[in-house]
Design brief:
The complex is a heterodimer. By secondary structure, chain A is an all-alpha fold. Chain A has a single domain, classed as Orthogonal Bundle (Helix Hairpins). Chain A is built from 3 helices and 1 strand, in the order βααα. The mean pLDDT of chain A is about 90. By secondary structure, chain B is mostly helical. Helix content of chain B is about 75%, strand content about 0%. The longest helix of chain B is centred in the middle third of the chain and has 26 residues. Chain B is globular and about 60 Å long. The chains are: A mainly alpha, B mainly alpha.
Amino acid sequence: MNLFAHEVPLSWYLILSAILFSLGVVGFLIKRNLITVFMSIELMLNGVNLSFVTFAQQWHEVKGQIFVFFVMMVAAAEAAVGLAIIIAVFRARATLAVDRIDLMKL
Amino acid sequence: MHLILFLLFAGLCLAGAINLLLQSHPINSALSLIVVMTSLAVLYLMLGAEFLAAAQVIVYAGAIMVLFTFVIMLLNASREERTLGSKAARRVGFPAVTAILAVIATVILKAQGLGAAKLSDGLTDAKGATNLEVLSTVLFTKLLLPFEVTSVLILIAILGAVALASHDGSKTERTGEQ
């Protein structure tokens, strides 16, 4: 493997984005803190964004990059509202542990 | 050169993501998420998305993560309790995630016609047109309406965040009426 190669196969970028997405899903499943669960969702969004940018490069189309731009805007709005909800939940239940926030559990 | 940069920043990215899962204190997870997002910005740069690389640093690593650290500080979030969590998540979740990752990886590796990324590659073949020019032309002509609608979306998000997080109950109702 030539380390000074001037190009990298795009499939490596796609594999990286798949791994990031899977790590996000795993974090969503195993983390017990509300804020960390939310951060795992951001990690998933970032993994998907990377694959959008990779395909924009593959097809020489600018639409993929524009899509990522809009995803970033929506993620910013989502983070603001989500963190406000977390503050409201903390005020009502005085905990961030997802196991204790179980009002809707059967 | 591209390969070295890719290996370096992809490694940083994966290390940050794994560290996010291993840390038990939310502030450590937030800091490793900043590492992930910043190294992703470098990867965007290598894929010919200069504007997105800048936006990634400003919006994600800047604004969103500042918001996260601010909330962690505000709520004085402590170390998470080590509970077993849900058994279904462990028994079904991990095999499912592994299977999905394996399927995606197989599809990607078998895919025909995937090219390679060069550092000098642009989105356009035209002489003198940069990626930023191409992107802004499409964004401000064809997609002007969606672009303007996002500003309304963000305005609504700000109002919603203020209404949700405002301390006083009666104040919340008044903000909701506006």
